From TrEMBL:
Domain EAL residue range list: 423-673
InterPro entries according to UniProt: Biofilm_reg_signaling, EAL_dom, EAL_sf, GGDEF_dom, Nucleotide_cyclase, PAS, PAS-like_dom_sf, PAS_fold
Superkingdom of origin organism: Bacteria
Annotated PAS domain residues: 122-166
Name of the featured protein: EAL domain-containing protein
Biological processes annotated in GO: regulation of DNA-templated transcription
Record domain GGDEF: where: 278-412
Phylogenetic lineage: Bacteria, Pseudomonadati, Spirochaetota, Spirochaetia, Spirochaetales
Organism of derivation: Thiospirochaeta perfilievii
């Protein structure tokens, strides 16, 4: 059975019906009407020259797009050319001598119709694709005329397809000079070319950033027949990237560079000084008594003062010669390229004079604006930005020690600088220790006053130097905190704690339910990515989060309450617990405790050390212990150095005690022996 639906008009029915059935066709006969043709999916009408329904067949041909095969059934009644033109048949057989002529014609017509249907289907697919693609598509013939434009292209160019088609492409598509040549109609032998540039939109009357490609179209003989142009509006993407780039490099409050970007520029000047012998300068402006304004008028006022200082700095540098940034909470930096120390001093005097003339008014309050100024010359003696900022920090710190409002030029041989240099040397020593993996863990027991099968230990960091000497935290932690290295050290401790936990779980010494207490510094607490880092470490070493308790200080928590709460919540969700360390050191306000989701209060050691002789200290410990218990928290007393202190704490009712009277810090690997 041949799947090709043929309708036989009455004048050819007797002539062809049986023969067509014999060779596999199933021709349809009967009344010629709309329903009959549609119901049977007729693809070809065969009619003779004597057909009575000729006009009806012609109307259906035009309405339903059905082809007609015309057979000359009466040799004495030939059709003239006008009749044939009116019918416009797909085929014409003049008085067939045998059925084979008809059969071959029908077979050829069948193939032709199938081919046309395939082309129509492909055309529909292509048109659908071109109309729904997110790129603009324009077809240009070899004469340079536009043959096709999809809706996106119309939107980008600002011209309707009905207007553009047939027009010369360069009259419709107005590209900027750097991309204009791509529309040249001559064949340059390029098959494909990508480009970026701007195009003029006739509706918005503005240029649009675009990226695109142009592809040469050739026929089967390889002859150039035109080009297909694809366009993508990348204006929004470029704007987005520009905004992201700006936001990642600028301080959102003041609109000048942030610390990270400022350091990048400083690195460039350090490199120039090192290899070209050039001289540059760094000026840091540090607001004096900024906290007074924050505490008196609130953070909104503090933010306004910072914006005011940034505005003054930008206003002084009218030619935008210098690199300006906010490098700390209340600190601003200015890099002066190709400047002598005399140039830097002169510029600093101008800045100081301008700022000192200003007062900060907030409501009915008026404050004088006073700053400390630190200057460092960037020459080939500066190794890196760590030493550069350490030097300028020294200069600002000494200016503040002298009462503030002073200009201090860094002097690497002055007595005051020598005192600070000991700490500054720790920068390189600590970086070296990080590189060489010289940090090791000790532990100290946190003893429960009641019998328990859970053993708590606090993990303590030590530094083992090149000579094998073990350095205590008091030797290096202050410098690490001052120069921003604590986040790196904290991450090292966290990973080493996870490694030890894994070893402990795998060993036969795991006779207790251990809780490992790990300290988190105030600067690490500000790192919003730290909770994710910790979770990744737990997954990497396959250790349960429930075995970890993180200790954060009361001071760091109060200063960064929202960040601390988010940090705690994110890790409590996976099972970690928390201790509030050194509680009481900040003249504690108990009211904020109800908002803190911590399990333990570690009472500040300064109260514990003198508890035997200081009734006030004992009263403080009792108060903290009672409040902690009311809030369902466990209390921990640290710095327990003798038996008398231990007995007093047991009498008060604390839950845990820690100190040299209980155990001394010991290398953590001893737990595995």
């Amino acid at each position: 059975m041949i799947n090709f639906n043929i309708y036989l008009l009455e004048d050819v029915e007797s002539l062809l019906l049986e023969d067509l059935k014999r060779i596999g066709y199933s021709p349809i006969t009967g009344e010629l009407n709309h329903q009959n043709l549609l119901k049977n999916g007729i693809q070809l009408i065969i009619m003779g020259t004597d057909a009575h329904n000729k006009q009806t067949a012609l109307s259906f041909k035009n309405e339903l797009n059905i082809d007609i095969l015309l057979i000359e059934t009466n040799p004495y009644k030939r059709l003239n050319s006008l009749d044939i033109t009116a019918i416009d048949p797909i085929g014409l057989i003049a008085t067939p001598s045998c059925f084979d002529e008809v059969r071959i014609s029908i077979k050829n017509i069948h193939c032709l119709i199938e081919y046309k249907n395939l082309q129509n289907e492909q055309s529909l697919w292509f048109r659908g694709i071109l109309h729904t693609t997110k790129d603009g598509v324009i077809a240009i013939d070899h004469h340079g005329s536009i043959k096709f434009m999809n809706p996106i292209a119309q939107h980008i160019v600002g011209v309707e397809a009905t207007t553009a088609i047939g027009m010369f492409s360069q009259r419709v598509i107005q590209l900027k000079s750097e991309t204009k040549g791509i529309l040249d109609i001559e064949d340059k032998g390029e098959e494909n070319r990508n480009f970026e540039g701007e195009i003029y939109n006739r509706v918005t009357k503005r240029n649009i950033h675009i990226s695109g490609s142009i592809t040469s179209i050739r026929n089967i003989q390889g002859e150039f027949r035109g080009k297909v142009l694809t366009l993508k509006d990348v204006g929004e993407i470029k704007d987005l990237f520009s905004r992201i780039s700006y936001q990642s490099s600028h301080d959102p409050l003041t609109g000048i560079l942030n610390r990270k970007s400022f350091i990048n520029y400083a690195d460039e000047l350090i490199t120039l000084a090192k290899y070209e012998g050039s001289h540059h300068g760094l000026l840091v402006i540090s607001l004096d008594k900024f906290r007074v304004i924050n505490d008196t008028c609130g953070h909104i006022a503090g933010d306004e003062l910072l914006r005011k200082i940034a505005y003054i700095i930008k206003e002084i540098d009218t030619n935008n010669r210098y690199i300006k940034g906010r490098i700390g909470g209340d600190e601003f930096g200015i890099l002066l390229k190709e400047s002598s120390i005399s140039d830097i001093k002169h510029f600093t005097s101008s800045v100081k004079r301008r700022i000192s003339k200003q007062d900060f008014i907030w409501g009915e309050k008026e404050f004088p604006i006073m700053c400390s100024y630190g200057i460092v010359s960037i020459n080939n003696s500066i190794k890196d930005h760590y030493s550069l900022f350490a030097a300028v920090d020294d200069a600002c710190a000494i200016s503040k020690k002298k009462g503030g409002g002073k200009v201090e030029i860094y002097d690497n041989i002055g007595d005051e600088y020598n005192k600070r240099r000991g700490q500054m040397l720790w920068i390189h020593r600590l970086k070296d220790a990080i590189t060489k993996d010289q940090f090791i863990l000790y532990y100290q027991d946190i003893q429960s006053v009641k019998a328990s099968n859970t053993k708590k230990i606090e993990l303590l960091v030590r530094l083992k130097d090149d000579n094998g000497e073990i350095l205590s935290p008091n030797d290096f932690i202050p410098s690490a905190e001052e120069y921003g290295l604590m986040p790196e050290i904290d991450k090292i401790v966290i990973e080493k704690a996870a490694i030890f936990c894994k070893e402990l779980l795998d060993s036969k010494k795991y006779t207790y339910n251990y809780i490992l207490c790990v300290n988190i510094s105030g600067t690490s607490l500000l790192d919003r990515s730290l909770p994710v880092y910790i979770q990744n470490i737990f997954q990497k070493y396959k250790v349960p989060p429930t075995l970890f308790c993180f200790e954060i200080t009361e001071t760091a928590t109060i200063q960064n309450m929202e960040i601390a709460q988010n940090f705690i919540r994110s890790l409590r969700r996976i099972g970690c617990t928390f201790s509030l360390d050194d509680f009481g050191s900040g003249f504690s306000n108990f009211t904020y405790l109800k908002d803190m989701e911590v399990e333990n209060l570690k009472i500040d050691g300064s109260f514990i050390k003198d508890i035997e002789n200081e009734p006030i200290h004992r009263a403080m410990v009792e108060s903290i212990n009672n409040i902690g218990h009311i809030m369902k928290m466990k209390t921990v007393a640290e710095f327990v150095t003798n038996e008398n202190t231990r007995e007093i704490l047991l009498d008060i009712g604390v839950d845990y005690i820690q100190g040299y009277a209980i155990s001394k810090p010991t290398p953590i690997q001893n737990l595995l022996l």
